[in-house]
Amino acid sequence: MARLSQEEMSQALGISRSAYQNYERGQRDLTAQLLLEVYEKFDVDPLWMLEGDSEDGKDRRHEEIATAYRKIGIAVERRIMDRGLSVTPEKKWDAIEFLFDEVLNADALSGESGAPDTTRIDSVLRLVS
C-alpha cells in the first residue's frame, strides 16, 4: 500500500484532516463506518485498526485463517482416507471450501479447533462424492 499523507487519507475517507489527526493520535474513537471505509478502500483489517499488532495490518488474522483452512483440509483428507472414499481433487476442494465458509460464517476461528467435526465432514463428503 502506498504511503498517503494525512491530507490524502482524510480526503479518501471523506473526513477533515483534523478529524483524521484525532483518529491517528487516538484522541477520537474510530466509528464502525470509518472502519468499514478503511477496510473497503485500503484492504486493512479492522481488527488491526483496533489492536495494531502487525506491520501490514493483516498478519494475525491471516495466520488464524490459514491455520483454520489447513485444519479443515487435513480433517477432510483424513476422513477421505479413513473411509476409503474416491473423491476427485475438485470435489475434495469443493468440500474444503464449503466447510471453510461455514467456519467463517460461524466465526469458529475464535473457537478452539477451527475445524468441523467428523460428522459434518462426512455429511459434506456425501454431497460432493
Q: What is the number of helices?
A: 7
Number of strands: 0
* Helix/strand structural class: mainly alpha
On the 0-100 scale, what is the average pLDDT? 83
Query: Low-confidence parts, pLDDT < 50 over ≥5 residues?
Result: 108-112
Form type: rod-shaped
Helix content: 55-70%
Distance between the termini: 42 Å
**Fraction in beta strands:** under 5%
Main sheet overview: none
Give the helices and strands as they follow along the chain. Answer: HHHHHHH
Radius of gyration, whole Å: 20 Å
Summarize the structure.
The protein is mainly alpha-helical.
What are the main properties of this structure?
single chain, mainly alpha, 7 helices, 129 residues, rod-shaped
How would you portray this structure in words?
The protein is mainly α. It contains seven helices and no strands. The chain starts with 5 loop residues before the first helix and ends with a helix. 13% of the residues are buried.
List the helices and strands and how they pair.
Blueprint: H1 6-13, H2 17-24, H3 32-42, H4 46-51, H5 59-83, H6 89-105, H7 118-128
